[in-house]
Amino acid sequence: MDIEQWLYSLPLRLRGFFIPNQVDREMKEELREHLEQQINENMAKGMAPEEARRSAVLAIGGMAQIEQQCREARGRSVLHDFIQDLHYGCRQLRRSPGFSALAVLCLTLGIGANAAVFSWLEGVLFRPYPAVAHQERLFAVAGTVQGESRPDLLSWPDFVDLRSGCTLCEDAFVTSITGSTLNIGDHAEVTTGSVVSANYFDALGVHPILGRAFKPDEDVGNGSHPVVVISYQMWRDRFNGDPQIIGKTQRFNNVRHTIIGVAPEGFYGTFVGRVMQFWVPASMAEIFRGGGRKLEDRSARWIESYVRLKPGVSRAQAQQQISAMAARLQTTYPATNRGRGIAIWPLWQTPFNHARTMGPTLEVMAVVVAFVLLIACANVSNLLLVRSFVRRHEMSVRLAIGATRGRLLRQLLTEGLILSALGTAGGFFMAYGCRHLLGVLLPEGREMYLPGRIDGHVMALSAGLSLVVMLIMGLVPGLQTRHLDLAGQLKAESGGTVVVRSRGRIRSGLVIFQVCLSFILLVGAALLLESLQKIRTTSPGFSTTSVDMTGVSLVAAGYDVPRARKFQDELIDRLSALPGIQSAAFAAVTPLGYFDFSSTPIAVDGYQPSADEQPEVQYNQVSPGYLATMGIPLLSGREFTRGDDENAALVAIVNRTMMMRYWRGQDPIGRRLQVKGRWARVVGVAADSKYESMRETTKPFFYVPLRQDFVVEPDLNIRTTQPLQSTLAAVLREVHALDQDLPLYEMITLQEQVDRANSSQVVAVTLVSTLGGLALLLSAVGLYGVMSYAVAQSSRELGLRMALGAGADDLLRLVISRGLRLTAGGVLFGTVAALALTRLLGQLLYGVSPHDPLVFGSALAVMTITAISACLLPAWRASRTDPARVLRA
Amino acid sequence: MSKPSDLVQGTLDMLVLKILALEPLNGWAISQRLKQISSDVLGVSDGSLYPALHKLERRGWIHAQWKASENNRRAKFYSLTRLGRKQLEKETANWNRVSAAISGIVQLDEV
């Protein structure tokens, strides 16, 4: 139909749709008019009125048929049919509320779980920074180290070179998370913020609602630009939305900063998992991060950065250019950059922040919820099949009075659409309710901000899913209408001796499919649970009970190196003298925390690295007594002492793995180790322990004395038999005895530290087990439905068996064994699929093989028990069959 | 009432278009005109005219309008649209070609 024709007929179609009654009336009027004319003419020819009318009606030939033909000629609008179907479908669903509620519930769970996981993927991985435009062109930048899989951070000078050299990048910016004590009036608390490059807001395209963003020169010169942009939330809550806020000052870490801008509402910074409250330029890094010479030192790697690629530039092209630049940096600055590259990642693979920890879990979840949806669909299809059997008489009648099969199919699809639309609506509510669930599931939940994001993408994806669901659900019973035997159906009335054979096969197939999918999920959940169990029972290599950790905020208080040294020594002396405290020690980094250990190139006397090997090992700066405090066994040699200070010869303690690799298992005590270009002597060997993750394998590691590689604000570890609260009180008392103004960081036990490190595992286990349980329940419902139906259908056969002498036990066994046969089929397929799929759990597994027979065995046991319980009720009903009644019927 | 065969059906469309090309008419008048022209050869029943009219209207070839008829009663008048005129030309040309070919065959001398 060409456009002109369509335009001509459009008014007609609209009339036909909106005022069908009037159109019909006009059509009848036209025909009546014709009839009248004919009658008049007949009477003019001399017929009697009665005969004139009769003859006219005969001439026109059956008024009702002509009217119907006219209606057909005008064409019925598809939309009109659809609305009629919708009305009819709603009426049908209302007539069986139990079925409708169950079906909608299944779909709500299935679609809701998917929408929730989509919204997490969107909000945490794909578009984590609301208010930032074109996130698809943002890429995370991090350093790579030869021979290490884990990326490192970048130094400021490297970043500056990258920014000026990357012509394919529209912009590059730095952000580095930091905390600050914030005093307003008499109220003090710790807030989270970022140290950023001056172009941060411009590069993101975020414009302050009050004041301005940073000027280009504000990230140059150590400590020279004490300016701050505060978040909307801080402006509203702490400063009561003061419209005159710009130009006022506020102390951050005891340095007076001028407030130059307020960020717009809904901008939370660029750190997945945390809400940023303030931003300061990189020139102030020293105030917030300490450690000295951050802007000039090419070996001080502390920044997390992002680039925004120019439109049309691919990741590979940009990576090529950036790699070439990194190679030039290697040759220009071999001392700091040898063996180091720079790589970019799409946001969802960001190697720092919580995208790193949540990514693998969410990827697994996406697969798991797809399974749950399929199981839910199978259930609803099963329900629809039963109903289509109940409705076969209705369908036959409709076919008999002239409905086409296409029209019936459209009706069934419409009913599927109503169900899936209701399920989708419910699913959105569910996803909305679950949007903060991820953050809540994490042990440190209160501080975490991992919101799901329900935006156009998520809506479109979920709507697409429900459309597929609708097709599946409508088509299965729809195809059944092909088997309708019209004459047979109508003759049989609704008594039902006609059983369509293929229906039973489809339903059994659906149950096998459900069992198969839930078995896979069971295996997955069991593997994750087993891993978590292994992780929990694996020793990290240090005591988790009876050690507490905290830190004293010295950087913020403006302590320089000599003052900090003095303070640290005095505090350790005071703490060690307390009765409840056995020992206390400082360490630059406490294991399994958020911060990574530094690593350094090393050389070892007598160890010849291969040509392309640049030995690089992580280390920690610790004070005397650290190993004893942490409970890390000393295998040989000695711990550091007060004597190992900045004036003494350099010393180091290596771990067992390092001894095995670089000294080939020989005692390294007294041998030399080169660290950062200076030679140190090995004085001790410590046992291996976990450093950054409970799932890591043993790796080389060494310790140097804190005094010989000083950090102003290390962590404080305390070995004590006292409960946390009294230790906290004691430490606070001693700290304040030394300096009244010093705040203490949060104090937690090392067990808490380990739990936080395992949080992504806990989230994965919780979610997969919950959904696995849900899947199991849905499958049980499916199996129950099939078995009940089979029992109801075969009551004649069961009665006959009973009449021939079968006992109630035999029938019970018969039904259960049939249920178990279906389950066995599902488990068989499930096992094959699970063997292939569990590898995908990859790095979430620890200490358990993806093919662990014990795990598969227990999953089988759970599945079998579930199957038997699902069959019990139908089987019991079968055993109660009254042969006299069913055979007479 | 017998349904006209396909050939007659297609021809009926063309005839209606041709009649309306001369002047706008209502259904009754069209049926009278049909009877006059075809002298009942085509056997078009009055009934089958109306579905055809509605079909042509839906295709955009004719346009309907309620007007007072000569005896002052409300009647539905049909007129040809621009699209209908083109269609008529097309069908007329088609008809001429086919009928020429057929009469050529029918008039072949039998041996």
How would you characterize this protein structure?
Chain A contains 29 helices and 22 strands. Chain A is an alpha+beta fold. In chain A, the strands form three sheets. In chain A, strands 1, 2, 3, 4, 5, 6, 7, 8, 9, 10 and 11 form an eleven-stranded mixed β-sheet that branches. In chain A, helix 5 (78-95) packs across helix 15 (405-433), helix 19 (501-537) packs antiparallel against helix 25 and helix 25 (759-793) packs parallel to helix 28 (853-879). Chain A is elongated. In chain B, helix 1 (6-22) packs across helix 3 and helix 1 (6-22) crosses helix 4 (82-106). Chain B has 111 residues and is of the alpha+beta class. Chain B has a three-stranded antiparallel β-sheet. The A-B interface holds A 4-9, 12, 26-27, 29-31, 33-34, 37-38, 59-62, 65-66, 69-70, 72-75 and B 1, 26-28, 31, 45-48, 50-52, 54-55, 57-60, 63, 66, 73-76, 81, 83.
Content-based structural category of chain B: alpha+beta
In spatial order, strands of the major sheet of chain B run: 1-3-2
How many H/I helices of chain A?
Answer: 29
Uncertain runs of chain A: 492-501
> Beta fraction of the residues of chain B?
5-15%
Show the largest interface.
Answer: A-B, 28 and 26 residues
What would you call the shape of chain A?
A: elongated
Give the termini distance of chain B in whole angstroms.
42 Å
Major β-sheet annotation of chain B: 3 strands, antiparallel
Mean pLDDT of chain B: 80
Radius of gyration of chain B using CA atoms only: 16 Å
| Content-based structural category of chain A | alpha+beta
Strand content of chain A: 15-25%
Write down the overall mean pLDDT of chain A: 85
In short:
Chain A is of the alpha+beta class. Chain A contains 29 helices and 22 strands.
